[in-house]
Design a protein that fits this description.
The chain is of the alpha+beta class. It is 65% helix and 15% strand. It is elongated.
């Protein structure tokens, strides 16, 4: 079992993304799936017991080796500075907010420099692009969800909350402007 845990740990560390039980089983040559799940649960308990900065995260039937939330602030800044500057992050945020996004709309909002940002995001694997009439349709990839440690449904829910807040602020501004006129 210890050797199997090391295999699973190595695979989770190397990929840095959520893997299904089937994927882990194939990479580690562990059969049956129930055994893989047992190895993952034992590994998760081991990480908990040693009070590590890392943890094994389970989302449905997907598993990932992750940095604990209380330590993310230490690594997040390093990753942001190393990989994506703020303008690229802002372009990615628009793609995520509109999901799926029409490239021409992103360019209208962000300017011509966003073509470079989109190129970087495509190359980095955070988005995909497919022909959509005379423009392109941009969609988030699994790498985006893994990198930002968010599940697709959570992102949709968070975007709904953002939309509601934007609407509230707009309504407050309208009321404020009407009061000024009165």
């Amino acid at each position: 079992m210890e050797n199997q845990q090391k295999k699973v740990e190595a695979i989770l560390f190397t990929t840095g993304r959520f893997l299904t039980l089937d994927e882990i089983s194939q990479h580690c040559d562990i059969i049956p799936i129930e055994k893989v799940k047992g190895v993952l649960e034992a590994l998760a308990k081991e990480y908990e017991s040693k009070d590590s900065a890392l943890e094994i995260v389970n989302e449905g039937d997907k598993w990932k080796l992750n940095i604990k939330k209380e330590h993310l602030h230490l690594t997040q800044k390093l990753l942001e500075n190393a990989e994506m500057n703020v303008p690229i992050q802002e372009t990615l945020a628009i793609v995520a907010y509109k999901q799926p996004s029409v490239q021409s709309d992103v360019v209208k909002m962000r300017g011509n420099k966003s073509y470079d940002h989109i190129g970087f995001l495509l190359e980095a694997g955070f988005i995909t692009s497919e022909k959509f009439g005379r423009t392109k349709l941009l969609k988030l990839t699994d790498k985006f969800y893994d990198y930002f440690d968010v599940v697709h449904e959570q992102l949709s829910e968070k975007m709904k909350v953002v939309e509601e807040k934007v609407e509230e602020v707009s309504e407050i501004k309208e009321v404020s402007e009407e009061e000024k006129k009165a």
